[in-house]
Amino acid sequence: DAKTTQPPSMDCAEGRAANLPCNHSTISGNEYVYWYRQIHSQGPQYIIHGLKNNETNEMASLIITEDRKSSTLILPHATLRDTAVYYCIVRAQFSGNTGKLIFGQGTTLQVKP
Amino acid sequence: EPEVTQTPSHQVTQMGQEVILRCVPISNHLYFYWYRQILGQKVEFLVSFYNNEISEKSEIFDDQFSVERPDGSNFTLKIRSTKLEDSAMYFCASSEEREDTQYFGPGTRLTVL
Fold first, then answer.
1. N or C: more exposed end of chain A, with fewer CB within 10 A?
2. Of A93, A97, A103, the CB nearest to B43
3. pLDDT tens digit string along A47-62?
4. Considering only CB atoms, which chain B residues are within 8 Å of A100?
5. Count of CB atoms within 10 A of residue A88's CB?
6. Do residues B111 and B19 touch, judged by C-beta distance below 8 A?
7. Which pLDDT band, with edges at 50, 70 and 90, does B92 fall under?
8. What is the pLDDT of residue A46?
9. DSSP B90
């Protein structure tokens, strides 16, 4: 089972920031937080990942709380094309991990004009 | 930018027939994965593959499934005798190292009649 909890759906106005929360209260010290999104039935698209520091790339920012039990994905200026299902996934690095990703139900983000 | 490709985009087959789904991972990647997504459900891990061997497989990946890297570029998923419940989107993914980010292909929609 997925080790994360996300709200099933959220709305956001076009041009505004979309803040998608994720709870991962049982995260271990060697587990990263990954975010992917899936637009319609396309393949999951990698967005960003982090361990404990906040991260930013051209797509989004990832804010991880100091205790690492939750995180927020921020899309700074949401567009209609950002409408998708967003998945927050915790994933162990090293130590016998075969690399598989365990997807939950994700958050369906609807960006509205 | 390098990307994972998959063919065909849509495959329709009769129950009991064999199908082969093809993937071309990103060229310098060493770890390969198959996932599937039944309509309306979560993305599920099927199998991981490294160094010409299966690293891990899920309960879904029974004897009807097999994977192969027949040459230096292709990675295939074979379903020997398809069932109605095999109808799903099948996604291939690859990563450079086990702990690295996985990049997904666009998927193959398999319809079993």
1. N
2. A103
3. 999 999 899 999 999 9
4. 33, 45, 48, 56, 58
5. 28
6. no
7. very high
8. 97
9. E
pLDDT beyond 90 at B1: no
Least Cα separation, residue A55 to chain B (angstroms): 15
* Contacting residues of B for A98, CB less than 8 Å apart: 48, 55-56, 98
Q: What is the DSSP pairing of strand A61-64 with strand B19-24?
A: unpaired
Residue among A47, A100, A90, A95 nearest A69 (CA): A90
Structure tokens at B85: 């419940």
Q: Is the pLDDT of residue A44 over 80?
A: yes
Query: Side chain identity at A18, as an amino acid letter?
Result: A
Dihedral sign, CA of A84, A90, A94, A97?
negative
Length of chain A, please?
A: 113
Q: How many CB pairs under 8 A join A and B?
A: 61
CB contact under 8 A, B33 and A99: yes
Tokens 């379903």 belong to which residue?
B79
Cβ of A99 within 8 Å of Cβ of B95? The answer is yes
Q: Using CB atoms within 10 Å of the CB of residue A103, give its burial: 0 to 12 exposed, 13 to 18 middle, 19+ buried.
A: buried
- Report the distance separating Cα A72 and Cα A17, nearest Å: 12
Q: Report the greatest alpha carbon distance in chain B.
A: 38
Are the C-beta atoms of residues A103 and A22 closer than 8 Å to each other?
no
What's the number of CA atoms in the CB half-sphere (13 Å) around residue A49?
A: 19
